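User: I'm writing a tutorial on reading structure tokens. Could you give me a worked example: one chain, its sequence, then its tokens, then a sentence or two explaining what the tokens reveal?
Assistant: Sure. Here is the example chain.
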Amino acid sequence: MATEAGLFLNGEFVGTHQRFTVRHKYRGEVLAEVAEAGENEVAAAVQGARSALARPLTIPQRFEILTAAAQALHRREAEFARLIAQEAGKPYKDALAEVRRARETLTFSAIAAKTLAGEEVPVAANPGSESRLAFTVRKPYGVVLAITPFNFPLNLALHKVGPALAGGNAVILKPAPATPLTALRIAELFAEAGLPPGWLQVLTSSGAQLGQRLVADPGVDLISFTGSAQVGQQIRQQAGLRPVLLELGNNSANIVHSDADIAAAAAALAQRAYAYAGQVCIAVQRIYVHRPVYERFVQLMADYAGKMKVGDPEREDTDIGPMIHPDAAARAESWAQEAVGQGAELVLGAKREGAILPPILLAGVGPGMRVVDEEAFAPIAGVSPYDDFGEALRWVNASRYGLQAGVFTHSVELAMQAVRALAVGGVIINDTSAYRADNMPYGGVKASGVGREGPHYAVREMTYSTVAVFNLPGQ
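And here are its predicted structure tokens:
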């Protein structure tokens, strides 16, 4: 029997008259009927968050609450992993990895709370200011609106909630309509960890109107959004002068040079192109391979991908589960068919069944194909040969996106050439574009976004600097 799930509003779970249905992404069965937040709930959430700020949390309190939340998540990791597999369609082993990463995100956020600091400013170096001492202090913006996607419903939410709380902000979390249940469990975690009412609100909805209402509310001081470039642009226009942090799309490029371990590269790239049905913003999509090893690489990658297990995400041996919705799978399938019509070769692919889309590998892809120019966000990868390493670098940069790229080579010279030349937020050497450690700076350039995540970096984005200048005559 499906459960009923309420909003988390000022420390309590609250029902509403309208509800929407959340289904199991593989079986289609109803998981829960979830409360739909409206105008009144938005007003109550913003007012509650602003009221909480009147009673600031001390730095030791923030540290203790974030640490306790990490410990609670550790105790409940199997429960969270099962829920993510059900409502997001993520294979259980990947869901479990997400939960364990999320625990680290909370731990790094706790450390960020204790280590956030200003700095001395050497104003005494200015003639006439010899008697002055200056330093900065970091202050919370106030109410942070966190709008999060379906694909990492736990860890990407905590990459916003954790640093925001670490910096002394109150948070309103608006999860994706497809995956609200994990966000509501996050509220349970923080309540168990001792977070006072008002500091975390979770508002759920089936459509875009809730997010638009929250972005428009003047009681929101900073907006952090992860999602599509199109929606990110709309939020930035609506936000006015308020700070906006955006983690947006990508069509991740990877380079495989002939001096690399070709078999290892093919295995890694196949895994990161197709795991979780490619629904990761840094998933492998474009692959540029040095011509001397091109044919061998394509065969190796096809062989590896062809052995990946597709099916029920709750099975512990499943590699690829369903896409988030059958429409998303149909759109991705049509892109692949379009590329074949434009001259690409279908090396690997099988018939779609509803939301299940088996791995697709295309060879000979090029500019003008949507599988190259846009973000597929699906289990699709395209391979192209190159003759010169500089040519490959130019192809990587010939994109409106710039989040992360992978480069496989044993040459330090080529690796450093890539680090210097690529217009992306992260260059991963001898691993795929999909590598992310939760304490590293993570974010992109161009249409891939503005700002950086990773608790140490995000907490600085979510606080502002005030400079204090003392005039100390006689010193």
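What the tokens reveal: The chain has two domains: 3-248+448-467, 253-438. The domain at 253-438 is CATH 3.40.309.10 (Aldehyde Dehydrogenase; Chain A, domain 2).
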